[in-house]
Design goal:
The protein is α+β, with helices and mostly antiparallel strands. The protein contains three helices and nine strands; from the N terminus they run ααβββββββββα. The strands form three sheets. A five-stranded antiparallel sheet has the order 7-6-5-4-8, with no helix packed on it.
């Protein structure tokens, strides 16, 4: 396992490994400890990233005009839980990330980046609740594992 890390470090021009490459080596090393494998059996990788939300600060500290404070944080957006997987008519599979003025903010499943802030409730179908963004990287997408 140490040899694999040294091999990766020598492949990199600056002597440091890219984060994705290091994650692949770390995940393989963990699997090898359990299974006793001597060499990687697959170069594919299944990535899971937890969805994070602001939870405690339910209102912004400084009030707006009219002495009203805007909501900030929480896990409910217009009655729907943040992280709910939806199928939008234009953007396809996305998840709910927030709301503003009766419109939903939808995020890309792969990257987590916002695709729109202007989605109406009638434009998407609710599928299920998610706790993680997941992505399967095939051997071609993951690149070479140990060079």
């Amino acid at each position: 396992m140490v040899v694999a890390m040294q091999k990766l470090t020598s492949l990199s021009p600056s002597g440091t490994t890219p984060m994705g490459l290091r994650a692949r080596v770390d995940s393989w090393c963990l699997a090898a400890m359990v299974t006793g494998a001597k060499h990687p059996t697959t170069k594919s990788l299944y990535c899971m990233v937890p969805l994070r939300w602001h939870r405690r600060q339910l209102h912004r500290l400084e009030p707006d005009k009219g002495a009203m404070r805007k909501r900030y944080g929480g896990t409910i957006s217009l009655g729907l839980k943040k992280g709910t997987l939806v199928k939008h008519v234009k953007y396809g599979l996305c998840y709910i990330g927030g709301n503003l003025r009766n419109r939903f903010s939808l995020h890309n499943l792969r990257t987590g980046k916002r695709v729109t802030q202007n989605a109406k409730r009638e434009e998407f179908k609710i599928l299920t609740r998610m706790a993680f963004r997941t992505q399967f990287l095939s051997a071609a997408e993951a690149g070479s594992f140990l060079g």
